Structures are given as C-alpha cells and as structure tokens.
From TrEMBL:
Record SUPFAM superfamilies: P-loop containing nucleoside triphosphate hydrolases
Record protein name field: Kinesin-like protein
Pfam families hit by this protein: Kinesin (PF00225)
Family the entry assigns: Belongs to the TRAFAC class myosin-kinesin ATPase superfamily. Kinesin family. KIN-14 subfamily.
Source species of the chain: Ambrosia artemisiifolia
Top-level taxonomy: Eukaryota, Viridiplantae, Streptophyta, Embryophyta, Tracheophyta
Length: 747
C-alpha cells in the first residue's frame, strides 16, 4: 500500500497525509479495513491521474497559446480596421494641421501684402485734415469761417482768401467741424490694426495751437480720441484672432519737452530717478532704457492710465490756447504677437503723437521760458519735416538724430512703416495765415509719397528717348560711312583719268566744303535734347499762370512756391516773367547734360519768327552735354511756356533765383524736391508766379541758326529718325528749317 502510495505522487498534500499516516497502531488496527479503503484509493488515484493529465494538457495548451487564441477573427479584423482608421485619421489630422498652418501663414502674409498694397496705392504717408468748429471767442470777435467744403468732393477743401479767392487743398480725407471722434477713428482704424500684423505705425497730429490736436488724439471722457479708441480696437481685434494669435499689449507714455525725455507713467514724473536717453538696441531699434512699459489687458484700465499720463504733461497758457501743450506727447503701444499655429512671433510699435503747436513765435507773443519752449518746438518740427523730406526723396542719409522727436520715432518713420498725419486747422479768418502754412506743409507731406512713382515714369520715358537717340546716332554713323566710301571711290576713279584731273580737284574742294550726309557735328544730334527736355504735356498745351484766384495744391507747378515747415517765415522772391523765352540748347554728343543755362535776348536781335518759342540745339560728337543753355527772348509771345527746366528755374531752391545775362546753374531734382518742401519761405505763398526767368541779353554765339542748306538737303530715311522727327515734343532744327518759316516748330 505504502509502495502504491509512493508510486503516486498525490497532487495534494492532504491526500498524501491521509495515506501516509505514521501511527503504527492505527496501521494494525486498520488492516482489516484496508480492503474497504482500497476501492476508494483506486478511485482517487484515477481521479489524480486524470487531473494530472488534464493539467499537462492545460500546460501544453497554455504554452501554445497566442493572441489569436483569445480573440475571434471578427474582433481581430475590427481591431485592425480601427487601427488603420486611426492611422488614417491621424495622418489627416496632421495634414489638416499643416494646411491650417500654411493657410494661417498665407493669410497673414496675404493680409500684410494686400494691406501693404492698399497703403502703397494710397501712399505710405497719408494725410487727413481736420477742421475744428469755430469757438465762442472767435464768433464773438466776428471772425468768419475761411473753410469752404465741397459736398461733392469729400477730400477737397478750399480756403477763402481775404480777397475772396479760393485756394484748393486735397487730402486723403477731410473731416469737417461737424465730424465727430467716431467718424475720425473709422478712417484711422485700418491703419492702427496693422500693428497687430507686425507693422510699425506712426500717427501724429500737427497744427497750430488750439486747433484740436489733443482733442483728436486724447479727446475727453465724453469724446474719446484716437489713443483710447486705438487700444479699444486692438483689444477687440486681438480677441477675434485669439484662436490663432496670442497678443500682449504694453503702453508707454513720454513727452519730449525742451529736447528732454520725460516718462509720464512713473510715480514722480517731475523728479525722475534717472535721465532718459535714446539708445540703439542690438537689433538696431531705438529704445529708451528705463522707460516704463505697462501691460494692458482691457479697456477699463486704459483710460485711467492715459489720463494719468496726460495730467503730468507740460502745458502752459499762451494767448492762443489756455492749456497749450508745450511738448510733444508720445504714446507708444508695443504689441508682442505669437502665432499659435506656426509659433511665429512679432514685436511692433504704434506711436500716437500729439505734437506741440506749430504756430509762429510772433503770433503767440511769447517771451522768456515760453520763447525757449517755442524755439525747441520749432527745431524739432523742422527736424521732423527734414526726415519726411529725406524719406520722400529716398536719400541715403535720413537725419533722424537731429532731434529727440525724430530719433525716438526712427524705427516707426520710413521703411515699410505706416505714417498718418492729422493736419489740424482752425476755420477762423483770424488764423488764415497759420492755416495756409499748415495746409501747405501737409500738402507737401502728402505729395511726397507719389514722388517715386512719378520718378519711375519719367525714367521710363527718358530711357525710351535715349534708346531712340542711340538708334538714330548709329543710323547716322552708318550712312555717313557709306557716303564717305562712295565719295572716295568716285574721287579715286576721277583722279585716275588724266582728263578728269582738273575736275577731281574741283570735286575735292567741293567735298571738303560740302556738308556731311547728316547734320554737321555742331547740329548733328538735335534729338539728344530729349534727354534734357521732356516737356510735360501741359507744356505743350497751355501756359501755367498762377493767380490769386487759382492756386490748386494739386498743381505741381507750385513746387516753386513751397514754403518751409519752419516758423521762421520769410517772403519768397517772386520771379518776374520775361515777355518771351527762347530756349537754346547746345548739347554736344557724348557728353551728358546736367546743368542748365538761361539766356535772354532782346527782341531786336531775334532772327526767329516772333510769335513762337524756339529751342535750338547744337550737339557735338563724342561729348555729353553737361550744360543746357537757355535763352530768353522778350520778343516771343509764348512767355508762359513751361518746360521742366523752366519750372525748376522759378524755384527758389535753384542756386540762382534770377537769371541775369547768360548764367549757368546746376540743378538737382532731389535737392529741388527737398528744398521745395522746406524752402526758406514760410509765409503764405505769393499769389502770382511766373515760370519764366528774367530776360537777359543772349550770347551771339547762339544767335545763328543751323545752316539751312544742310538741313534742307538732308532727309532722314530711317523710320526711327522719321518717327522721332514727327514727335511734337522733340524739337529739331532740321524740322524747323524745313518749315520755311510758316511752321511753328514747338508749340
Ligand atoms: N473737433 C472739435 N470739436 C469740438 N471741440 C474741439 C474740436 N477740436 C478742438 N476742440 C476744442 O478746442 C480747444 C483746443 O483744442 P486742443 O487743446 O485739442 O488744441 P491743440 O491743438 O492740442 O492745442 P495745443 O497745441 O495748444 O495743445 C479745446 O477746448 C477742444 O475741446
């Protein structure tokens, strides 16, 4: 039994214990009962064996088990499908994200591009004019309104002179006295929003004291101005864009008073801990280390902040304004932007500037401290004018550092920055002079942005004409060569024949005396004159005559009459008209023309048809004309004819205002443009301007006309020559000579 027990290793201890009971007495006593236990034991053994077998099977089964053993094929398929779907969706999501990212980038750049285009079209420098209502004082004193608004022309304004003449001004927008702050901001908001797109923007209010600069920029609690509305708009737009953009806005407020910078947002602005200076950062931007920068998150906190800043601002009483701003107040809004999709970050500034009054020192009768303030104000406003002028003429050096005002605004004036100027005016007849000055300055600022485009057009035209001239030159040279060869051949044949020797000699003599095929070297290139004279269409239509009743600021002719930004107003010398003008240009081939000389000739000496104005050109080969010579002939009736040069000649910025006798002077279009902006005069422009210089005796050297027989005998064949000759604006002595005196060569 024991052996049997040993034979079977019971799977359970209980069974073993039961079988291997050690008590011998029990063993003996149970001997009899063994027979009874045996069948049970066998039964149990069988059970154990079967269990053991089952266990082995289970073990094997377990060992051979895989994932498939647990799941049915449907479940597996479903899982596989889900996995694939998951992968597809993940891929799609990633693609969508990429597309969104690209779209955001595209939208951003597209928005920037479109906005840039609009601004480019409208001009990077935009000018809005705002006329305030008449105040009680002015009405009480019996002043009348000089501002005449045309309901049909929204952006035009006429100023009525003392003699009832009207001077017309045109701006990007004109706000009338009845226009409220909301209307003003509606026009301004597109520009301010571009700061959220990463552009630097500068908005400034310019004008005489008491015309509403502070009203426009700051406003009052009931009539909030551009500053507050700007921040309100920035909050609103940044909220709209919150799903793709995150913005942080900071506000700084400072004033430039007597060329010193004062932080208006510190506790004790009157006693600053440190002197504030402008420093250039590593990125090249202008920073004011130590200037407080307050983060702003909602409109509620902004108004109080702005008010606290303006309370500290330097104001003083002048006879022109009870609370006159004696400093330039600058509010800077710094925008930090982060594109949540592509992580792109931007940092841009918006400057909102309330300039100090631009009135004349004499006008406000200041002295002492006020006078000193006014001088500083004058200086910085002049510097601002210089910067704008230099930006317009695209000169390499922009004089930003000439004043604290321009230096601090350096990163926000010029380049692809957007600039908006509010020119503020008073409607009162008592302020007429100042109003005209402000409007003239604003017109010049507005005219600036169209400069480069005009210049390009001119360059294209010039290039076209130069090409034509070059073609003509080549053609003439070719023809001359061929002709020379023919003559040489004929002479050689003639000289080889004894009977013709005498004739050969005669021919040689004739050949020497004979004119060349084309015009002589002196008059060969009349067309080169086109590089100097590209008369404007107007020049061929009607004379320019500025009178008291007609002085449109649209007319670029009045550049000659520009007044400066400076308040040191002086009268500009009026240029007296000559009764008639003959422009005689002597341009020598292969030399460039860069200067002009005027000549005046008494009528008695004139040999040209009296009623016309004649351009005589002499061009010598292998010289580029560096001097263009002008003659004025009193006998000619077309005294008002205007050419580009004659226009410039009338400009005070030419090195010679008047032409006396034969005189040469250089002119530089950039200088003309710059000086025209800030010329020496700042008084209202004279009502009459003549474009023609004072007549002076003409040099006899230019009295003679090209030889008629040459002109008459030479007929150009080349289509370019023929076409060029037909052009009205190109004067050719050949054409004139061929006219037998009955044709007017230049009208
Ligand atoms: N468009 C307007 N509507 C109503 N009131 C105006 C308007 N413009 C200006 N004013 C009022 O004219 C007065 C002078 O305006 P403001 O102080 O803004 O002039 P300013 O040009 O800033 O003068 P300064 O250069 O001396 O600081 C203020 O009382 C102002 O409320």
């Amino acid at each position: 039994m024991a052996d049997k027990i040993q034979e079977f290793e019971s799977p359970t201890m209980n069974i073993n214990l039961f079988i291997r009971h050690p008590d011998q007495t029990l063993q003996q006593s149970h001997t009899e009962s063994e027979q009874q236990i045996l069948p049970v034991f066998e039964k149990l053994s069988k059970t154990v064996a079967s269990l053991r077998k089952e266990q082995i099977e289970l073990c094997n089964e377990f060992k051979s088990m895989t994932a498939d053993s647990f799941l049915g094929s449907e479940v597996l398929y479903a899982l596989q499908t889900l996995g694939e779907e998951h992968e597809t969706l993940k891929k799609k999501y990633q693609e969508e994200c990429q597309m969104l990212k690209n779209r955001c980038q595209l939208e951003c750049s597209e928005r920037r591009r479109l906005y840039n285009e609009v601004i480019e079209l409208k001009g990077n420098i935009r000018v809005f004019c705002r006329c305030r209502p008449m105040n009680h004082d002015e009405i009480a004193k019996g002043s009348t309104s000089v501002a005449d608004f045309d309901s049909a022309q929204e952006n035009e304004l006429r100023i009525i002179g003392p003699d009832s003449s009207r001077k017309q001004f045109k701006f990007d927008h004109i706000f009338r006295p009845e226009d409220n702050q909301e209307a003003v901001f509606a026009q301004t908001s597109p520009l301010v929003v571009s700061v959220l797109d990463g552009f630097n923007v500068c908005i400034f209010a310019y004008g005489q004291t008491g015309t509403g600069k502070t009203f426009t920029m700051e406003g009052s609690a009931e009539n909030r101005g551009v500053n507050y509305r700007t921040l309100e708009e920035l909050f609103s737009v940044s909220n709209e864009r919150s799903d793709i953009m995150k913005y942080q806005l900071f506000v700084s407020m400072l004033e430039v008073y007597n060329e010193k910078i004062k932080d208006l947002l510190v506790e004790d602005a009157e006693h600053p801990a440190k002197k504030l200076e402008i420093k250039q950062s590593a990125e090249g931007t202008q920073e004011v280390p130590g200037l407080s920068q307050v983060p702003v998150n909602k409109t509620d906190e902004v108004w109080e902040l702005l008010k606290s800043g303006s309370r500290v601002r330097s104001v003083g009483s002048t006879n022109a304004n009870e609370l006159s701003s004696r400093s330039h107040c600058l509010l800077r809004v710094t925008v930090l932007g982060e594109n949540l999709v592509n992580g792109q970050r931007t940092r841009s500034h918006l400057w909102l500037v309330d300039l100090a009054g631009s009135e004349r020192v004499g006008k406000i009768e200041v002295e002492g401290e006020r006078l000193k303030e006014s001088q500083f104000i004058n200086k910085s406003l002049s510097a601002l004018g210089d910067v704008i002028s230099a930006l317009a003429s695209k000169t390499a050096h922009i004089p930003y550092r000439n004043s604290k005002l321009t230096h601090i605004l350096q990163s926000s004036l010029g380049g692809d920055c957007k600039t908006l100027m509010f020119v503020q005016i008073s409607p009162s007849s008592a302020d007429l002079g100042e109003t005209i000055c402000s409007l003239n300055f604003a017109s010049r600022v507005r005219g600036i942005e169209h400069g480069p485009a005009r210049k390009q057009t001119d360059i294209t035209e010039l290039f076209k004409y130069k090409q034509l001239v070059r073609e003509l030159e080549n053609q003439l040279a070719e023809e001359r060569k061929t002709r020379q060869k023919q003559e040489n051949r004929a002479l050689a044949v003639a000289s080889s024949h004894p009977l013709l020797s005498s004739l050969t000699r005669s021919l040689s003599t004739i050949s020497e005396k004979r004119p060349p095929l084309g015009p002589s070297s002196k008059m060969r290139l009349p067309l080169r004159i086109v590089s100097n004279f590209i008369p404007s269409p107007a020049a061929t239509q009607k004379p320019r005559h500025f009178t008291a009743s007609r002085f449109s600021n649209e007319d670029k002719e009045n550049r000659s009459n520009f007044k400066p930004l400076s308040r040191a107003r002086q009268g500009s010398p009026a240029i007296k008209p000559a009764p008639a003008t003959t422009f005689t240009s002597q341009i020598k081939p292969k030399r460039r023309a860069s200067a002009a000389t005027f000549h005046s000739e008494p009528s008695s000496r004139s040999i040209r048809p009296a009623p016309t104005t004649t351009f005589t050109s002499q061009i010598k080969p292998r010289r580029r004309a560096s001097v263009t010579t002008f003659h004025s002939e009193p006998s000619f009736s077309s005294s008002m004819m205007t050419t580009p040069i004659s226009r410039y000649s009338a400009a005070p910025q030419m090195r010679s205002d008047r032409v006396v006798g034969r005189q040469s002077f250089m002119w530089d279009p950039q200088r003309v443009r710059r000086m025209s902006l800030l010329g020496p005069s700042s008084t209202p422009r004279p009502m009459t301007v003549e474009a023609t210089p004072v007549a002076a005796p003409r040099s006899s050297r230019f009295m003679g006309s090209p030889h008629s027989h040459i002109v008459g005998s030479w007929k150009p064949k080349h289509p370019t020559v023929v076409a060029l000759q037909r052009r009205q604006l190109v004067w050719s002595p050949l054409k004139y000579r061929g006219s037998k005196g009955d044709r007017k060569p230049f009208v």
